[in-house]
Amino acid sequence: MDLEKQLAEAAMLWGADYFGIADLSPGRDAILEQGGTEIAAYPCSISIGIRLLHPVVDQLSPPPERAAAISYLFHIYDIVNPRLDHIISRLGSVLQNKGYRAFPVPASKRVDRERIAAIFSHKLSANLAGLGWIGKNCLLITPDMGPRVRWGTVLTDAPLEATGQARGDGCGDCRECVDLCPVKAFTGQPFRAGEPRAVRFNAAKCDRYFAKMRERDAETAACGLCMYVCPYGRR
Question: How many domains does the chain divide into?
């Protein structure tokens, strides 16, 4: 059995719904700027995705009630994120045991407070693996679940064959996420490789909105409307 098939079967056995391998060379400049030379040294990545439960996301119709917000936060951050981290850690061990370097990127950990960013973009990896496109809401949009998927990534130097290429924009003229955003953080511009995130998304506006919600009640500091409203997920 080739390594790609072994990794894919293991990921699915351990609970993944999506598996993809990306050649990271097209995104090297962006990866270097975000994560530095050590992160940019990895030539490929493995993307793992877990589908979110529709009834949990569908409760977020604005404004979400207290019980809906709490169940959403619990489902994503207390349950799904650890599931992803568990899978990518085990895949990393498989790769290391075969003599390769592997770096599991946590499912949801901010390392740069100024830029409001993680050390590596899960969305970039999944996009380059052919699993979806980056939408106007700056989320990874899959054809079957829209943005209702959480992602984890393993960076590696193993000589793996990519499962696909970056998908083009599938949002078209749709602006539902742009129009519903409570703080108008999205500009409505489509994703274009090489352009800074700020062209599409004002992350500081979004971050300040969440900070105010946490001040009022940390247990219910949830939004998710840009995920909730996407037609690819709601259909």
Answer: 1
